[in-house]
Amino acid sequence: MNSDHELTQLRQRVTELERSEARYRNIFESSPISLWEEDWSAVKQHVDRILATGVDLDAHLRHHADDVIACVGLVRILDVNRATLELCQALNKDQLLGALSVVFNESTLDTFRREVVALGNGAMSYEEETTICTLGGEDRNIMFRVVVSADSEQTWERCFVSLVDITDRKRAEEALRLSKEETIQAQREMLARLSAPVIPISDDVIVMPFIGRLDRVRMQQALGVLLDEVTRLRVTTAILDITGVPEIDAEGTQGLIQAAQAVKLLGAQVVLTGIRPGIAQGLVALGSNLDELVTRGTLQTGIAFAMQDGGARR
User: Fold this and answer.
1) Any signal peptide, and if so, which residues (predicted)?
2) What is the residue range of 94's domain?
3) Residue 88 in contact with residue 134, Cβ under 8 Å?
């Protein structure tokens, strides 16, 4: 009787295992995420032999690519699901398994090295972003994750790999980054124009007033705005008013000279107004060449000069 009872229990157990395996296979095959069932036991043995020599596994694999490639060849793929075939653009499992060298590129090899190091150092899982190439030649960004099954932590004979396609997310992130850069650049240009506004006085004359310290960076920004407006408005005279500038460094001074030279190349002239005594002394002390500049004491006199019919250049 005991024998019959034990046999009945064994049959029930087998039936439960079969049902459990069927449920697992159904979940495995129907998962929308690429899943790989693999046997890494030979990889574990190879890694153990390397570690037995007393070397640092990470340093060793970094300098011995042949061992990394050997580990790749020792991985035994037991099964892949339908989502894997779709991700890799393979018609069937045989086609995919015969073209793994196409799917997994140099970037993936680096990922594989790092996951071997992680597992070799005791981790039971590892993940990172990497890339693969589909059989159709399309690069895809993926989140790669490997997990050692709880019942094979000592042998690695059952490992599960998942590949999550994050290509669309990465593209969206890149588009957002570019959009932010464009926005920042537009804001910089707006600030540059606000810090050095251009005021048309007539069809032929514009004024660019400066307030605050004038250095090389600000002068470069102002020069770009100035040249754009001289070209756009086709003026003959650009007045740079520095009444509100308490100080100007050597590079800023040189920038004024360069502005005058650049504007002259466009067929117009620069009139510099509002020079304070201290700035005038600084210009002389620096030995600046002022021949390119028409100077006037105040903005009013500068405008009057520019508005004169046929105003002569100094």
Assistant:
1) none
2) 31-165
3) yes
